[in-house]
Structure of Putative acyl-activating enzyme 18isoform X1:
Amino acid sequence: MEMEKKKKIGEVGVDDIVKAGALSREEAKQLHSILQEAIAGASSDPRKVWQHLVAKRVLKPWHPHGLHQLFYYSVYAHWDPSNSGPPPYWFPSLYQSKLTNLGRAMEIHCPKLLGTSYKDPINSFSLFQKFSVQHPEAYWSIVLKELSVLFHEPPRCILDTSNQSRIGGAWLPGAVMNIAECCLQPSSHPRKDDYSVAVIWKDEGDNSTVNRMTLKELREQVMLVANALDATFEKGDAIAIDMPMTVHAVIIYLAIVLAGYVVVSIADSFVAKEIAIRLRVSNAKGIFTQDFIPRGGRKFPLYSRVVEANPLKAIVLPATGDALGVHLRMQDLSWRDFLSHVSCLPR
């Protein structure tokens, strides 16, 4: 359902409800009655109307998605996203808002930046957004600190607008950084020390175990792969990744960036011809991939598709367990062999 359909929530009838979801006509009549009662005397502000419908629990989790869409888009029928942004769906409580990254930062910095005008993260959100536009140096200095962004060479300024030919200006001119390093280093942020959980995942086909990796464990794994990259490739080489989004894919991606190589991301759904095009365009010197893609209790070949694209070198991970389920070309390496001659040394 598109926003352009202008029927207001008060105009939604029983036929609309039946058409939108798998409800009988009698169920639709009951829901329509509940809806009319909920919106009677409601505010003209669509945000408050939607908030009221949510608070009254007019819609249930088991109602069809089309019904949720019908009510949502009808409430916001005359909402102008070009001026007001996307229509809000969820409204956090004041307590919840203060637990968000932005809310926490506002509570710390806004009393000083906005003075007595600051109330709380919800009521002062628009005021702080306006401040961020008018004072980018102050705002982005706070954001960079909150995100623990580390510079090898600090920027000359946050935003340089002196060159009128550069639309939007130049951000962080002169800065030198490695974003993977920023991700992996502990910081003064209370939620980012060596023992903070950095990655949570479940392996395909394992419905019981939820795995967790701390920041320290992630950093050690990334450094190990980065050292192995240095022993195999030349600085600046483009290295492709054609894998499902596994924990190993995350480690490999961060390692390529940390070690100063160029990441080439390739969707694991691509056929060999598409893989070959990306390898050729990027001039990739190697590719990380898996033997198979496990999905729904079946195994789908991936390494064979990659080989058909004829990469210079492939590093192949087993989809499950420690042993590969395919035979490798002469120039290719198993994940185990790739890592076997390096150690996790500081970089």
Q: What stands out?
A: The radius of gyration is 26 Å. The chain has a mean pLDDT of 92.
